[in-house]
Amino acid sequence: MQITYISHGLHETGGYRHEKALTEAISDEINNCTICYKEIRFRKNYRGIFAWFLLFFKSFIHAKGDLIITVSRLVWPVYLRNIFNKNKIVVVLHNFDKNDGKPKLYFSLLEGFFKKARKYPERFLVITVAEYWKEKL
User: Fold this and answer.
1) Which candidate, 97, 101, 99, places its Cα nearest to that of 129?
2) Contact, 89 vs 70, CB < 8 A?
3) How far, CA to CA in Å, does 54 sit from each of 36, 42, 48, 117, 129?
């Protein structure tokens, strides 16, 4: 089974390490090998509307695999790339902070994805840590 982990960010944060450990554990369980997955990380901080479109496009292009593990910001391009196949998507949600500057559109799009995930639980898995997200799901 081909497993792909897609993320972004300049620094390797605790969230990144958590997602990578999750990917390795899943790979070990499914493929009996902790390094048998493809990691795609866009090592840049994307700010501004043009940068968001660029990140969307890059994520869309690379969202290939039987199982794709990604973060909330990249979930829509990953979903759109895999809309007509049976690939499974795992979304990892971390903290929630009202003051971190995310626009309302971000939360609206995420809520839209949650509706899709509820309709097709065999294709989507949402993993969360923060209480805020637990209450939303």
Assistant:
1) 97
2) yes
3) 28, 11, 10, 25, 28
- SS3 of the chain: helix, strand, coil, percent, to 5: 50, 20, 30
**Could you write out the DSSP letters of every residue in 31-69?**
HS-TT-SEEEEE-S---SHHHHHHHHHHHHHH--SSEEE
CA 48-80-20 angle, to 5 degrees, is 75
Contacts of 74-77 with CB under 8 Å at 24 or more apart are: 74/6, 74/7, 74/8, 75/110, 75/113, 76/109, 76/113
List pLDDT tens digits, range 55-112: 999 999 999 999 999 998 899 999 999 989 989 999 998 766 666 767 777 778 888 8
Among residues 64, 49, 51, 65, the alpha carbon closest in space to that of 8 is found at: 51
DSSP summary character for residue 13? -
Which pairing describes strands 67-71 and 38-42: parallel, antiparallel, or unpaired? Answer: unpaired
Strand partners, 71: 92
- Closest residue by Cα to residue 71 from 131, 15, 25, 130: 15
Grouping H, G, I as helix, E, B as strand and the rest as coil, residue 132 is: helix
